[in-house]
Write a structure and sequence with these properties.
Elements lengths: L3 H59 L6 H6 L4 E4 H10 L5 E3 L3 H6 L1 E2 L3 E2 L19 E4 L4 H12 L5 E5 L9 E2 L16
Parallel strand pairs: 1-6, 2-4, 2-5, 5-6
Antiparallel strand pairs: 3-7
């Protein structure tokens, strides 16, 4: 009986085992490279976004618009105001636009008097209902998160004086309104074709 076939078989098994280890190591290195590439891409995008924000602030200042120190330091296109500041603006000018970006159910349960409902997910389709881009616009939600999202997005769409109400309706000092679904049925406007 010849031992040669067994030696060849053992050598092939050992080679396959060793090769599978190398393949696993290469696969791990590929995963790490993909992760690093994704991370580098996000950093480049963030840097580009920061440059665009800075350019926008410089352009606004050159045009004579007011840009706060906090906006520049935080890299925001919009301002944040307290609920009290928003309420005082509404008292001074009852026609000042206050847009509530919460869901219709939240709005109907309780909202700042005089606020107009445009839910955050409908905002891109209802821009025509907003004030002109150079007019002041205040946005409010439950605590400030969604109104910040909406304010940042609107600022990138060209609105130059957008304010998010910090603390939202939870800290609203003025009169409130509430309706039941039986009193007011909400139907979003039709989307343009």
């Amino acid at each position: 009986m010849s031992w040669f076939p067994l030696v060849v078989l053992a050598w092939c098994a050992w080679s396959c085992w060793r090769l599978s280890g190398r393949v696993a190591k290469l696969a791990e290195e590929v995963r790490e490279l993909r992760y690093q590439a994704g991370r580098a891409k996000r950093e480049v995008e963030e840097s580009s976004s920061s440059q665009q924000t800075l350019r926008s602030h410089v352009a606004a200042l050159a045009a004579g618009q007011k840009v706060s120190r906090d906006q520049i330091l935080k890299g925001q296109f919009y301002t944040e105001i307290t609920a009290l500041e928003a309420y005082e603006r509404l008292r001074a000018d009852p026609a000042a636009p206050l847009v509530d970006v919460r869901s219709p159910e939240e709005f109907l349960a309780d909202h700042a008097a005089g606020a107009k409902l445009i839910p955050l997910d409908e905002l891109p389709h209802r821009l025509a209902e907003l004030e002109p881009k150079d007019r002041p616009l205040m946005l409010i939600c439950a605590s400030g998160g969604r109104s910040q999202q909406a304010a940042e997005w609107l600022a990138t769409q060209g609105w130059t004086d957008v304010a998010s109400v910090r603390g939202g309706t939870g800290s609203w000092p003025g009169p409130r309104e509430a309706r039941t679904m039986m009193q007011l049925k909400y139907a979003p406007p039709p989307r343009p074709a």
